[in-house]
Amino acid sequence: MVILSLRFLAEVPILYYLLGIMLCAIFVNTGFYLHFESRPINNPVEDTSEALDPDEDTSKALSQGADASKSLIVSDDPSKLPDAPVSVNYFPSRECNYACGFCFHTATTSYVLPIAEAMRGLRLLKEAGMRKLNIAGGEPFLHPKLLTQLLRYCKEELGVESTSIVSNGSKIREKWMRDNCQWLDILAISCDSFNPETNINIGRGDDGKNTDRLFRIAEWCRTYGVKFKLNTVVNVYNWNEDMVDNIEKLAPFRWKVFQCLIVAGENDDETRKRDARKFLVSDAQWRTFCEWHKHLPCFVPEDNNCMASSYLHLDEYMCFLDKGEGMITQSQSILEVGVKAAMQEIVWDKKSFLERGGIYDWGRSDMKNVQQSACGSVNKSGSVQNMGKKGACDGVNRKDIDF
C-alpha cells in the first residue's frame, strides 16, 4: 500500500502537490483560531475609577455648608459624614455660683437630666459621629459626681476621642483631679482678669482669689496629665488689660479669647437674667486687645462673627440651641427625635466651625514627649513649638485634619 501511495504521488504534477500542502496548512490554522476564539477570557477588567479619600472628602463636604449633605461619602465611620455632630458642647445644668454680667447661658432652670437618660443621649451622639464632648454650664463642678459619671461613661463605654470641661475654677479640688484625670483630656478655666477688682466688677466671684486658684489648677493639670486651657471674654472692664506676663506663666496649650456677645433671649436686655449690653466693647477695643496678645502662640481669638452658629450647643434637656442671629432657637430633644432630626431644626455653620479652628490638638497623645511651657510647648531639645496660633477667625488647614 505504501509503495502504491508513493507511486501515485510521483505521478501527481508538482504544482498540484504544492497547492495541496497550502490548503492543508490553511485548514489547520483556521481550526486552531476557532478553538481559542470560542474560549472565555479570564483576564479581569482594569478598574480605572479614582479611589476616594474619606478624610479629604468629608472635609470638603463639611465646608460646603447647607449643600454638604449631597456630597458622596465612602466610609463606615459616622464622624466622617457631612452633618456629623463632631464636637458638642453639653450644658447638663444651668446652675452657677457666679454672676458674670455678660453670661449668655443663664440659670433660667434648675433641671438636671437623670443620669441614665444623659448616658442614652451621649450614646446617640457618639453613634451619630461625635468625637469630642465639652461639658460646660452653669458651673459643672456644682455636680462633681455627675461629672465623674459622664466622663467615665464617655471614655470607658463609648470611646469618645476627647473630653473637656469649662469651669470657673472655684469648686475644683485636687482630689477630684487625681481621681478623674484618666477620663479628662482638657480642663478649661474661665479667666477674664488678673485684677481682683475687675473680676468683682464683672461678677466673677467676690473673694478676689481667682488668680491664686488659677495657678493652682494649672499645676494640678501638669501633675495629672490634663491639658490646661484658658477662656477669656473681652469686655468693657478688661479690654485694656495686658495679660501677657500671667498667660506666659500659666502656660496654657490654648487660650480662647472671645468678644463679648449678645444672645437674644439670654442676655439682651434688662428683662433677662443678665443684660450684657453694658459689657460690650467696640471693634476698635477688641482689636486693641488682640494686637497686644496676638504674638502668644496659644492665642486663639474669636469675634462675634466667628461664634455665631459655629458651635453645637446641647442644653439640659438635650435639645440643640441655635444662638446665632435673632432669637435663640431650641430643637426637640435628641432623646425624643434622634440626633439627625434635632440637628435639622437648628443652624450649625460647618464652614465657620472649621475656619475658627473647631478641630485642633484635643487629645493627650502629644503630651507624652512634650512639656507644656509658656503659652505653647517646648520639646526635649528646648526649641519652642507653636501649638496652634491662629488669627481672628482663622482655623486649621482642612487638608491637615484627620477627620
Helix content: 25-40%
Strand content: 5-15%
Cα-atom radius of gyration: 34 Å
Secondary structure category: alpha/beta
> How many domains, in number, for the residues?
1
Give the number of helices.
14
| Annotation, overall tally of beta strands | 13
CATH topology: TIM Barrel
What is the correct CATH architecture? Answer: Alpha-Beta Barrel
First CA to last CA: what distance? 88 Å
Give the neighbour order of strands across the main sheet. 7-6-5-4-3-2-1-8-9-10
For the record, what is the CATH homologous superfamily label? Aldolase class I
Topology as a string of helices (H) and strands (E): HHHEHEHEHEHHEHEHEHEEEHHHEEE
The largest pleated sheet is described as: 10 strands, mixed
> Any idea of the CATH class?
Alpha Beta
What integer is the average pLDDT? Answer: 78
Low-confidence stretches: 1-10, 30-75, 369-374, 377-403
Taken from the alpha-carbon principal axes, the silhouette is globular
Biased composition (Acidic residues): 47-56
GO molecular function: 4 iron, 4 sulfur cluster binding; catalytic activity; metal ion binding
InterPro entries: Aldolase_TIM, Elp3/MiaA/NifB-like_rSAM, RSAD2/Viperin_antiviral, rSAM, rSAM_sf
Region (Disordered): 45-68
Q: Helices and strands in order, then pairings?
A:
Elements: H1 2-11, H2 14-37, H3 54-62, E1 87-90, H4 115-128, E2 132-135, H5 144-158, E3 162-167, H6 174-180, E4 186-190, H7 196-202, H8 210-224, E5 227-234, H9 244-250, E6 254-259, H10 283-293, E7 299-302, H11 304-307, E8 313-314, E9 319-322, E10 329-333, H12 334-337, H13 339-343, H14 350-355, E11 371-373, E12 376-378, E13 384-385
Parallel strand pairs: 1-2, 1-8, 2-3, 3-4, 4-5, 5-6, 6-7
Antiparallel strand pairs: 8-9, 9-10, 11-12, 12-13
Helix pairs in contact: 4-5
Transmembrane segments: 14-34
Protein name: Radical S-adenosyl methionine domain-containing protein 2
Biased composition (Acidic residues): 47-56
